[in-house]
Design brief:
Structural class: mainly alpha
Largest sheet: none
Order of helices and strands: HHHHHHHHHHHH
Strand content: under 5%
Number of helices: 12
Number of strands: 0
Helix content: 55-70%
Distance between the termini: 48 Å
């Protein structure tokens, strides 16, 4: 396919607008006029009809979350990442670039990628600020943080007890604690903790 993600997203939005207007001819024209995007559009249309709620009042919260997740996958499939390290990589940023862009110490950002920072220790404002930098929602950022973890390496000469304790992963830490222990400048620490 020669079409970029932005163009495909515009076609999906045009199809949705035609759906809301009840304009079936415009929907057919979109498919006909864009043969290079037909497969993706057909998948999108199928997903739309499968996930379309029957009636807003009868939809359970679980179904609403599933519907929102399905739409998120359809519209931002190129941007979805499993964890924060993958998100940073998809944005084309090095560890240092991400830390600088966020005005965090590299050590603090590394703790995010390793899943050391506890999601519950972030204020709504801090979470929003982190998510905004990567152009994702707070919920997406939180899911990726919870999915982040350090790669476990085991030295063959390690004792069995040491190997078991390292399998438990790194000790969790609050965001404030990570900031306080960091070598970040005082102004940046204050900016994040205020």
């Amino acid at each position: 396919m020669n079409m970029n993600t932005s163009e495909l997203q515009q076609l999906k939005m045009a199809w949705l607008a035609a759906e809301e207007a009840g304009d079936k001819q415009a929907q057919v024209a979109l498919l006909r006029d864009h043969p290079d995007a037909q497969d993706e559009l057909i998948d999108f249309i199928a997903a739309y009809h499968i996930t379309a709620p029957v009636a807003e009042t009868s939809v359970l919260p679980l179904t609403q979350r599933a519907y929102a997740t399905a739409l998120e996958r359809v519209f931002s499939d190129a941007l979805v990442a499993a964890n924060l390290k993958e998100l940073r990589a998809k944005r084309g940023l090095s560890l240092v670039q991400a830390a600088r862009g966020l005005r965090l110490g590299v050590d603090v950002w590394k703790k995010f990628e390793d899943g050391v920072i506890e999601l519950v220790s972030l204020s709504e404002h801090q979470l929003e600020r982190l998510a905004q930098f990567f152009e994702v929602s707070s919920e997406q950022f939180g899911r990726m943080l919870n999915s982040s973890y350090a790669a476990m390496t085991v030295n063959r000469r390690q004792t069995a007890q040491a190997a078991r304790s390292s399998e438990q992963g790194p000790k969790k830490q609050s965001f404030a604690e990570a900031i306080e222990k960091s070598t970040m400048p005082k102004e940046e620490k204050k900016d994040w903790l205020s």
